[in-house]
Specification:
DNA-binding transcription factor activity, 2 domains, Jelly Rolls, DNA-binding, 12 helices, HTH_AraC-typ_CS, transcription, alpha+beta, AraC_XylS_family_regulators, Arc Repressor Mutant, subunit A, four-stranded antiparallel β-sheet, 20% strand
Length: 277
């Protein structure tokens, strides 16, 4: 199977910042911040996690938990042995990220259930326990690797039943989704996408809506907007962006922006820069 994450990682810049390594001695609150997610790795100890979006959770063994979307939450150690590595991250902050929209409020995986992470986590924990020059940069990059590996695990182990990653975990749907990701400028018809998935038109349409949560046509429109926003953020001209995502003219792209975002591309870009520095 072709790489199911390559186009997503091209479109949405993933940047992590590790801010906690070692003992967690006191209850710590993390406030909701626009465009910022959190990933926490409990190495040992007993921990309580509270957030308004889910019931209180009790962890008594090494566990990874991740908030893809901005969420206020609180971590409270229940004994003195709690050791953690925590990071904030941005994954295309301010952009129309289909992964962020599709993931549940919190993703929880016991470390014993994700052996594919063993080597990465071993290196991360060793680096976190030592003090060398360049440590912050190394920890940040390693945490970005961990986040990508978690997304891979969510697909490979079919941990999600709904949303984009669930669609990419379906071998047949993934062929159609990958095709849209790779060629957003193409005028994809339902028939052509169904052929990519080796399914009948009706069966493909029903399966896509059931798993991804939207129609193929609506998803293509959303993906085009995501790519357009990413290119505009990189400083590409509006006409160039319109050609790349299949709208043909700057005016057609502007109409799409106004209908879906409520702003023109230039207005959106100005507000994006104001909000994200």
């Amino acid at each position: 199977m072709s790489d199911r994450l390559v186009e997503l990682l091209k479109c949405f810049a993933l940047r992590a910042r590790v801010f906690q390594t070692g003992p967690l001695c006191n209850s710590t609150r993390f406030d909701q911040e626009a465009g910022v997610g959190y990933i926490h790795l409990l190495q040992q100890g007993q921990l309580t996690v509270k957030a308004p979006t889910h019931p209180a959770l009790q962890f008594d063994e090494p566990t990874l938990f991740l908030y893809m979307n901005p969420t206020t939450h609180q971590l409270t150690p229940r004994d003195s042995s709690v050791e953690m590595v925590c990071a904030s991250f941005e994954f295309g902050a301010g952009l129309n990220n289909p992964i962020a929209r599709a993931l549940p409020d919190i993703v929880v995986i016991r470390l014993s259930d994700i052996p594919a992470l063993d080597r990465a986590l071993t290196l991360l924990f060793i680096e976190a326990s030592e003090h060398h020059c360049g440590q912050q940069a190394i920890l940040d990059r390693m945490m970005e690797v961990v986040i990508v590996l978690v997304m891979r695990d969510l697909m490979d182990q079919h941990r999600l039943q709904f949303g984009l990653l669930a669609g990419l975990a379906d071998d047949r749907l993934a062929k159609a989704i990958n095709a849209m990701h790779a060629e957003p400028e193409r005028n994809w018809s339902l028939e052509t996408l169904a052929e990519k998935a080796n399914m009948s038109r009706a069966r493909f349409a029903n399966r896509f809506r059931e798993v991804v949560g939207t129609t193929p046509g609506a998803y293509l429109s959303e993906w085009r907007l995501s790519v357009a926003q990413s290119l505009l953020r990189q400083g590409k001209p509006v006409q160039y962006v319109a050609d790349v995502v299949g709208y043909g003219s700057a005016s057609a792209l502007s109409r799409t922006f106004r209908s879906q975002v409520g702003q023109s591309p230039r207005e959106w870009l100005k507000r994006y820069h104001e909000a994200n520095g």
